[in-house]
Amino acid sequence: MKVVILAGGFGTRISEESHLRPKPMIEIGERPILWHIMKHYSQYGMHDFVICLGYKQYMVKEFFADYFLHTSDVTFDLANNRMEVHNNYSEPWKVTLVDTGLHTMTGGRIKRIQKYIGKEPFMLTYGDGVADVNLHELRRFHESHGKIATITAVNVGQRFGVLDVAEDGGIGSFREKNDLDGSLINGGYMMMNAGVFDYIEGDKTAFEKEPLERLAADGQLMAYRHNGFWKCMDTQRDKMQLEELWQSGKAPWKSWRD
Questions:
Q1: How many helices (H) and strands (E) does the chain have?
Q2: Beta bridge partners of 199
Q3: CB within 8 A of 137, min separation 6: which ones?
Q4: Per-residue pLDDT of the chain (258 residues; tens, 9 = 90+)
Q5: Rounded distance between C-alpha atoms, residue 231 and residue 133, angstroms
Q6: Of 258, 255, 225, whose CA–CA distance to 45 is shortest?
Q7: Residues 52, 14: contact at Cβ < 8 Å?
Q8: Are the C-beta atoms of residues 91 and 98 closer than 8 Å to each other?
Q9: pTM, whole model, 2 decimals?
């Protein structure tokens, strides 16, 4: 199953770092947060990634092109123009890096990678949030209800789109938050059937607005409730909190072994 990661935004709320690199390349424990997200999916047997790029896309491409330089010891034999990689560990990943435009909205980025997905269901998430979501349970839930879209609902503060969730997980409405709302929000870690592409017009479509609103109105949007750890790296403070968790050796999202 393919995993689509939205990694093309400007990351303006963490501009202390994003003016130098795209937000998904900001490091936690000397590895990009994008790497942490991919490691979690890979732990559940999902190794085929499609990454939607935009702002400073070349930095993401260079990271994967030079992956061994980031993860292994190397010897450069300059006289013979040769490089030897030591303690070589290759991730079992296939990574498709797609330029989805500098100013394209999230829905537009998803629409642009349709040709890489085809008609198969796929996972979808953002390149700036880590969690300990059980992806096997998410997949089973999605396949059990037969609807087009499942999003993971998490219980946190008041910053993101608000969900009206019924007892069976059905979503009656999706809208942007206001000051009077509760705290169940869209935490990413979504699963979609290919029918979702029909709900996206083009580059100017924000996935969190018209597509999710229409899916909810059509009874095609479901919520998988996650009561565990979830954290979006939205600000410098968020980054420092994630770094502290990583350095403590107790990062809740670390589902893999070194």
A1: 9, 16
A2: none
A3: 224
A4: 999 999 998 877 787 777 888 999 999 999 999 999 999 999 999 999 999 999 999 999 999 998 888 888 889 999 999 888 887 777 999 999 999 999 999 999 999 999 999 999 999 999 999 999 999 999 999 999 999 999 999 986 555 555 666 777 786 666 655 544 456 789 999 999 999 999 999 999 999 999 999 999 999 999 999 999 999 999 999 999 999 999 999 999 999 987
A5: 11
A6: 255
A7: no
A8: no
A9: 0.87
